[in-house]
Specification:
14% strand, Rossmann fold, 2 domains, alpha/beta, globular, two-stranded antiparallel sheet, eight-stranded mixed β-sheet
Length: 313
């Protein structure tokens, strides 16, 4: 009422990672952990308050609007909601061609390229080109969003939960399409999801986030075979399984995530961790290497190996 600021929400705090050309970096975590905010920060759709962001050796934060417009040709985002991210007043063909028009391409060339990309993602432009978003299914809309992101020939594609709104059979089709496009165009993916099965299928490396911070990172194989952080172990334990011997009698993690306005001191997961120790409240644990290209932010690995748990895999 008095327009006073009482607290700040740090949606993403001290997150640091590299994405190598040609790889797929998976980012996983429960809702509210900062995944989508991180995706928008990478493309500077949200201005970061601090830190550095480098793309192909260039400081993205220092780029002025004309240069940032050029950089965004190489960095594109596929949004989570395939319907809300499409303009309902534009036909599918015009929606895909719009980015080319913004960057100064002739209208005829833009439409020709849009038709070619619609065909590549499995939508016949003669049947779908003049339709509107409300006339398509969820999977078809997401194919349109993928074509729109690829129309400028980007190098990096940030995919923010691109299949979470689709049913399982359509999910598989879209994921296979993304893998084919990655091979054809030598793309680099940052793939965000809360579904561990999807992350394992598409990713070469995985970054696990909790309440705006990185708690574990490593190869997809290393995290699947030996998750180290208690939160990562709980994520894998909560994944559905058809094996009756692996069915859970009790939830692997209890309680609700803390309020991001006033997060716990030290390790932010300690209020829900079965292995919490007194010094976990003193300072955030740093990322420690626990294997080749595998690091974890947990005091359990400070001196001796952590005890295995039923949540492990």
């Amino acid at each position: 009422m008095l327009q006073r600021t009482y607290a700040w929400v740090r949606a993403v705090d001290d997150v640091s990672f590299d994405v190598h050309p040609g790889e797929t970096l998976g980012i996983v975590g429960e809702s509210g952990c900062g995944k989508s905010t991180l995706a928008r920060l990478v493309l500077r759709l949200i201005e970061p308050d601090a830190g550095t962001l480098t793309f192909a050796g260039e400081d993205v934060r220092a780029a002025r609007p004309p240069r940032m417009k050029r950089l965004r040709r190489d960095m594109q985002l596929v949004f989570q909601d395939p319907y809300a991210s499409l303009n309902p007043r534009l036909t599918i063909e015009d929606a895909v061609a719009f980015s080319l028009l913004v960057h100064g391409r002739p209208r005829a060339e833009a439409r020709e390229r849009a038709r070619a990309l619609l065909g590549r993602v499995g939508l016949d432009p003669r049947l779908y080109g003049r339709r509107y978003a409300h006339e398509l299914s969820g999977g078809q809309r997401q194919r349109v969003n993928i074509a729109r992101a690829l129309v400028l020939d980007p190098k990096l594609l940030v995919l923010d939960e691109p299949v979470s709104a689709l049913d399982k059979s359509v999910q598989a089709q879209v994921l296979n399409l993304l893998l084919e496009l990655k091979r054809e165009r030598a793309l680099t993916y940052v793939f965000i999801s809360h579904d561990l099965n999807v992350i394992e299928y598409v990713s070469s490396r995985v970054l696990v986030m909790y309440l705006g911070e990185v708690v574990e990172m490593g190869t997809a194989e290393a995290l699947a075979q030996s998750p180290r952080h208690p939160y990562t172990q709980a994520l894998f334990a909560s994944a559905p399984t058809m094996d009756p011997d692996r069915r859970m009698d009790r939830p692997p993690i209890t309680g609700d995530p803390p309020n991001p306005i006033d997060p716990p001191s030290g390790c932010r997961f300690r209020t829900r961790c079965a292995f919490a120790m007194p010094h976990c409240a003193d300072a955030p644990p740093p990322l420690r290497a626990v294997g080749p290209d595998h690091a974890v932010a947990c005091y359990l690995y400070e001196a001796t190996p952590a005890p295995t748990t039923a949540a492990g895999r």
